[in-house]
Structures are given as C-alpha cells and as structure tokens.
Amino acid sequence: MQAKAINKKKNSFLDKIFKFINAMGVWLVVILFFVILSLSTDTFLSYANLINVVRQICVNALVALGTAYVILGGEIDLSTGNMCAFTGCGTALLMVAGVNMWIAILIMLIIGSLIGALTGAIVTYMRIPSFIASLGMSYVILGATLLLTNSEPISGLPQAFMTFGRGYIFDVIPVPVIILFIFFAIGAFFLKYTSFGRSVISVGENPIAARLSGIDVITTKILIFAIGGFTASAAGIVLASRLSSGQPMAAGDVGLTAIAAVFVGGTEKGSAMNVLAGAFVLGLVNNGLNLLEVNAYWQKVALGLIIILAVLLDQIRASRAVSVKKK
Amino acid sequence: MQGDGNILVLKKVCKEFPGVKALDSVDFTLRKGEVHALVGENGAGKSTLMKILSGAYVKDSGTIEFDGNVVDIQSPKASEKLGIAIIYQELNLINRISVAENVFLGRAPKKNGVIQWKKMYKDAKALFNSFDINLDVSKCAREFSIAQQQIIEIIKAVSINARVVIMDEPTSSLTDNETQILFRIIRSLKEKGISIIFITHRLDEIFEISDRLTVLRDGCYIGTKDVKDITKSELIKMMIGRELKQQFPQRNVQIGEECFRVEHISDGSKVKDVSFYVRKGEVLGFAGLVGAGRTETMRLIFGADKRTKGKVFIKNKEIQIKQPKQSVSEKIGFVTENRKEEGLFLKLPVRNNIVSVAIDKIKTLKILDFRKEREFCEKYVNDLNIHTPSINKAVVFLSGGNQQKVVLAKWLLSDSEVMILDEPTRGIDVGAKREIFEIINKLAAQGKAIIFISSEMEEILGVSDRIIVMHEGKISGEVMKKDFSEQVITEYAFGGA
User: Fold this and answer.
1) Given this model, what pLDDT does residue A6 score?
2) In chain A, which residue's Cα lies nearest the Cα of B398?
3) Is the Cβ pair B329, A214 closer than 8 Å?
4) Where along chain B do its domains lie?
5) Residue A311 falls inside a structural domain
6) d(CA B465, CA B479)
7) Does the distance separating the beta carbons of B334 and A215 come in below 8 Å?
8) Closest residue in A to B304 (Cα–Cα)
9) A202 contacts in B (CB within 8 Å)?
10) A80, part of any domain
11) Residues B84-106: pLDDT tens digits?
C-alpha cells in the first residue's frame, strides 16, 4: 500500500501534464503545427497566406460541422461533397436565370436540407445502412448536378454574390470566416444547450436505450441528416462564391475531408469546437506541405497517414483517460 | 465397455462463480439409449451442468466418466470429440448455405482438394433417409421451419458420431405437431443406442418422452427417479423447498384504488391475451420461468413492440400507446431487464443518463439549465445512495448496483406513476439488492403502482403484495398475499398441476 502511494506521488506531475493535454485536446495539435510551420517556413506567417489558409478551411469546416452531427448520431453521410457542388451550381443557375440572390440562396439551402432529410428517411424508414444510403444519394446528387449544368461551369454571377467567398469586413476579416464563426456558434450551442443536442448524443451512444427513454430516434436521425445537408449546402454556396462560378466537379473530396476532420477532432466529447480544430489541423497540414514544396502526390500520402495517426492518438488518449478514471 | 450400460457418470461435480455456488456436488448418471429429463426451477443449475458437459465451462472439482473412462472436458472441441452434442435453443445452422453443406460443414467429401458436390448431396440424402426423413438437402437452411432446422441440427450431430445429445428446451418454439415429429426422431435415436438429455419447462413432455428424470435445486442434486414411478405433484415437491435466507425490508402501505389496467394484450406469438390491474401503492409481482413472456408483455404495454390486440388504461381512461415516448408522457416508467443494452448510455456521464427521460424538467426558456441539472442529479445521487465520484463520471465505471440505481433515478426524475421493474436486482450484490427493495418500498409509499418482475422465488414472495404467474405467454394464475407459497407459484409456473 505504501509503495503504491509513493508511486502515485511520482505520477502526479505526469498526471497534471496529461490532464492539460486532455483538456486542450486537438487544439494542442493545431498550436503545435502552427509553431512548426512558423519556424520552418518564412511564408507561413504572412497575412496573405494565413487568410488563404482560413478561407480554404471554411468550406471544409462548414461541411464538417453538419457531418459531426451525423457522426455523433451514430451514422455517416458520404453525400456531402457532391451536395456542395450541387447547391453551388443550383444557386448559380437560379441567379443566372434572374432569381434574386437571397432567394436563390434560400431555395438551395432548403433543397439541400430536404435532400439530407430524404437520406435520413431512407436510413430510418427503409432501414438501409447510412453508408450505403448516403453513397447512393451521393451519386444521385452528382448525376442531378451534371444534368442541370450539362457538366459545364456556370459563370456570370452577380458581383454581390462574390462577397460570401471573397469579401472582407473592415478590410481585414474575410466574410467566410464570419459565416464560419456564426455557424459554429449556433452549431455548438444547439449541441450543448438544447435537448435536441442531448438526443443526438444519446441516440448515437445507444439507440435502443434512447428509444426506451422516450426519445424520438427516427426524427432525431432524420434531423441530423437534414443538418448535414444544410451545412453542406451553405459550404457549397461559399465555395461557388469563392470560385466566382458554379463548378459541377469542384467539390472533389470535400465530403471525405469533412469526415476526416470530425474524427481528427475527436467525437468522444461531442464538442463542435473540436471539429473546428480538426478542420484546422487538416488545413494546416495541407498548407504546410504546400509551403514546404512537398510533391503533390506525396502530400496525399502524408495527409492519409496523418488522419490515421490523429485518430490513433485520440484512441490512446481515450484509453488513458479510462485508466486514470479507474484509479 | 462396461456392463452397467452407463454412457455418462458425473460424480460430485462442483462449479463456483464469484459469489455463487452454481453446482454443489452434483451426481448424474445417463444410461445408454435412454431419454433423461433434467428438471429444476430458474437458477437450479441445469444450464451450468450442460455447459460443463459441452465444454463451455470447466468444472472446479468432481469426476466425469464417459463410457467407463474418466475424461477431462476442457473445451467444446474436447466435448465434441467424445461424442457429446448440444442443440441450443438458438439454432446454429448457417442460413444461406444448403442443408447438405451444413451437415458436412468442415468435413465435406473432397477429391484433390475439390469438394465433391454430388457425393455430398447423396450422402446427406442417405443420412436423412435413414431417419425416415425426406427433405431436399440442396435447399438453403433458412427455407425450413424452426422445427425442421432443429431436426437437421440433431441429425448433423448424430452424423458426427454423437452418442449423447443434449437438447435445451427444444420444444419451446414448436407447435404440438412439430413436437410430435421431434419426439419421433428422439425415439429413433434411442433405438440406435444414442442417449438424450432433455431439458424442458413443460412437465407433460417429461412424462411423455423420458425414461428417467433428475431434479436439481439451487445447484444441488435432489434425486433421480424413473418417470413411471412419480406423479406431477411429487415432481414439483422435489423442485421446490429452497431455504429462505434473505430478509426483506418491511412495508406498511395502504393500497389505494386501481391505477393501471391492461386488457387482453397480445402480440400474436409470445404474449397471449394478458389482462391484469395494479393499484396505487401496490407491488404486483410477475413470476414465471425464464421465457414465459413476462418481459415481452411489458414491452408491449410500454410500446416498445407492436401489439396485435389489447388496451391499456390509466385511472380507467384508455391511453393510446404505440411508441415508448407515449408511455413516457403517460408517466409509465420501464426499468428494463438488460440495463447495459437497453437502459443506459454507458459512455455518457451520470448526469446525461439521469436526465435522459425528463429532460424538459431541466430547461429554462427551452435552454438546458446546467445548474438545475446538477441539483436534480445530486439530489438523486444522494437519495438513492449512488456511489460515484461525480455526476460527470461515465456510468460504465460504476458497479452494477449503482448503474441500476442510475436507471431508477432517470424514471424517478420523470415522476412515473406506474413503474415496471424487470429483474431490477439481476447481477447486483446483496447490499445493493436491499437498497433496491427499500426504494421499491418508498415508491409504494408515494402511491405509485409497481410491477415487479423477478425470476427469484424468494424475492418475488418477499417483495410483492400480489403475484401473477405466467406460463408460455399466458397468465396461469394469480396468487393473493395470504396464499403465497413456493408450491403454488411453482405449480402455476409450470402451467398448473
């Protein structure tokens, strides 16, 4: 017993460090990358580059926010990437056809949410696993985008529309950053301070117990997919604005990057801010590798390994947390 | 070969689990070519004994002789090698491959490493024909009824040279007709000199098919009898009579008017026309054998499963329940039998779990109020004496008893008027059990109607004001407090003497 007590004292300093790491979580990695990149390159800290990084992160982070709801609710949505391209093009087409910009945006946000809800309905009512259901929907959305645009970019958008992706407030803060901030503030609030947020977490943890506790599991699941569709649509609009056009093939692997961002951020605690940090990590890695002039193909390899490593670290952290709690 | 004709002789077999003596010096003898029924109440030790024979558990002490040789069964493989086959209630056939492939799984006839399909089908056909069974062995296993699948499994076992076949409640999901077909197979196995250990909850079947029977009670060997020398009521007398050791906290509650009533509830298979009522402040016990349909009945009432028929009334007013959320808003609470799978969010903190049902109570202007949440949670942690370092601790780290108290807390916070407690003391220690009983008393004193399911005879007799006994999906009896006795409950549990 005595030996144990001494042992404990020895560990207490380590425990303190560990507690700090645990509390900071993935933000620590963000800071670490930030420091490394600041020291190893002279271009990273330039205003132009930082703005560029943040703007790139915006689209991914917006998609990741909705994806985090889906993943916390115990499902997955693979269709968000194509959803981005779809709403970007849809908004562009509507505006080119003469629809008022705000109405065009509103229409596409609603359509995006409804498509998400449809995916959710397929998952819940037809009992098709979300991996398959969202994969199928992903192709349907891609096909719809190609049909609508004839696979050609939609340009000639009103000047006012460019503000969302390229504008600045007070000539310093990019508009997409403001959008990002507002979305995350609302997203984090709903997750933490409403019973809906609790329902999402409960359903994700144990859908059977959730149902027997009187939680409406089906509605909750449909709503998380609708949220996923909504944020992906918002991201698509920001993207179209940044590119000054609706690009049918622009979204690429945005959906998958968003899923990666959620896992890198760590869903364990169910915090929206961790998701933001996850998106930052991926954005910094991408930017850093560019600045260090790493071959583009190797960049992909590195990104993949970093995603796996990040989740591995999170698991070690979680199991460490378990063993500490058990003491 | 020995002359006495015994294939299996168990002497003084013991098995202990932490805190429980599951088998205490059990003797058991199985003759060649006999059907031997193994009988006992819930927890008598039947399954433990069978698991030792099938190699799922290893005995602590005692000897097992198989065909005259002392053997040591260390694994399911070892048991299979000896020639002991066990047919479980859940079938173990692979659904999507043919009957012939199932029968010859892992030992298909091969030539140069290639499976000889023709020979396999021919052999399988011949095997079934030798039992006068005609079925298409090239069809997938899932195309056959449960009874047929069971027969396929038995014949598969015999074809692997099984000399002892253990059947664990093989008839529980069969119709009368199918049961007769199964019995025909059992008789033809007997003729071939194969011995059968038959576990059933249907006493009539014991008298119909078995030659001898052995009774276990509380892990102890009670006796072995020739079936022709014993009557049904003598058999029940052998099964009961366990020592009552536990003390139950006293309750002095004035039972009020009727509060909750269920009429003719059915699900078309496992629950058949169940009706009952509970009064305010009353603890209504539900007794019966495991699998009698008690949990299924409660799930129907709560809206967790679909009912085909039946009505539910609260204070004489019919209520519509199709989903658990409707039960929750009607103030019905349901502490489920499997707390980890159905009751708790294991990785979430105690606080999330406690407020998961009555989340509206902790809101201020639609927004979650963490101060209120903390106050409510701390109140219940104190009231129910939940041992946890903090309400932020994930429930997975709590002991079974404390986890159960968290489940109780979530229903208490939601002000449930009717509380359904399904095996609330399962897997928790004696001290925590007593605390649960005290909580039940408190709830009764508050005028709540309590439905208490338990498979432990002592507990159900000690805690209930009135007991309903179920047998095979039906209510087989209702017993008032003045008539409480183990004999009566057991008789009803086995379908009435």
Assistant:
1) 45
2) A326
3) yes
4) 6-239, 258-493
5) no
6) 9
7) no
8) A212
9) 345, 348, 352, 356
10) yes
11) 988 877 777 888 889 998 888 88
pTM of the prediction?
0.80
Q: For residue B410, list chain A residues with Cβ-Cβ distance below 8 A.
A: 213
CA distance B479 to B469: 8
Is residue A124 one of the residues assigned to a domain? yes
Cα–Cα distance, B31 to B63 (Å, whole number): 17
Report d(CA A260, CA B279) in Å as an integer. 55
| Look-up of token digits 């509390």 | A23
Q: What is the Cα–Cα distance from B62 to B52, expressed in whole angstroms?
A: 11
Nearest chain B residue (CA) to A209: B342
Q: Do A216 and B397 touch (CB under 8 A)?
A: no
Amino acid at A178: I
Residues in B closer than 8 angstroms to A72, CB to CB, are none
Centroid of chain to Cα B321? 27
Provide the pLDDT for residue B497: 56
Looking at chain B, the whole-number percentage of residues with pLDDT higher than 70 is 97
DSSP symbols for B311-330: EEEETTEEE--SSHHHHHHT
Domain count, chain A: 1
Q: Distance from A25 to chain B by nearest Cα, in Å?
A: 18
Q: Which chain B residue's Cα is nearest to A211? A: B324
Residue found by looking up tokens 């580059």 in the block: A49
Position with higher pLDDT, B148 vs A184 = A184
Architecture of the B6-239 domain: 3-Layer(aba) Sandwich (3.40)
The length of chain B, given as a count of residues: 497
User: Cβ separation of B325 and A193 shorter than 8 Å?
Assistant: no
Pick the CATH number of B258-493 from 3.20.20.70, 3.30.460.10, 3.40.50.300, 3.40.640.10: 3.40.50.300
Q: Which domain holds residue A108?
A: 58-268
pLDDT digits (tens, 9 = 90+) for A267-290: 655 688 889 988 998 888 888 888
